[in-house]
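Task card 7
Instruction: Convert sequence to structure tokens.
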Amino acid sequence: MLIRSDPFRDLDRLTQQMFAAMSRPSAIPMDVYRLGDDYLVHLDLPGVDPASIDLSVERDVLTVAAERRSPVADGTPMHIAERPSGRLSRRLHLGDALDSDRIEARYDAGVLTLRIPVTPAARPRRIAVHAPNTLTARSTPRALEA
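Output:
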């Protein structure tokens, strides 16, 4: 079996993994967009057991935590290890305009989707413009009458 390897790239990757493991859990990549009266958040969690996903809201912070287990037993030598394993987490600061009591979560094909509704008070609304039935004549300045 032939495996091409760039020692500098491998050293850089190993250094990043070492410092990331020492500092904090790996961040979870995400996309966020607004669709109508909801914000949709898609978080990539491939290979994660849905039972290990933990969602919690405290004040205005939504925390998503999960654990991805290594597919090999401890002590098994890895030739290439690029996929992060262990504890993963992401925190989202929710604004006052979002209804944290009605957040919905769905996990499908390695993607956790959150639907966060906008509060009714923060939704855009139309304001009616009322006009009088008859127009009143404007008075002209006296200087123009002469």
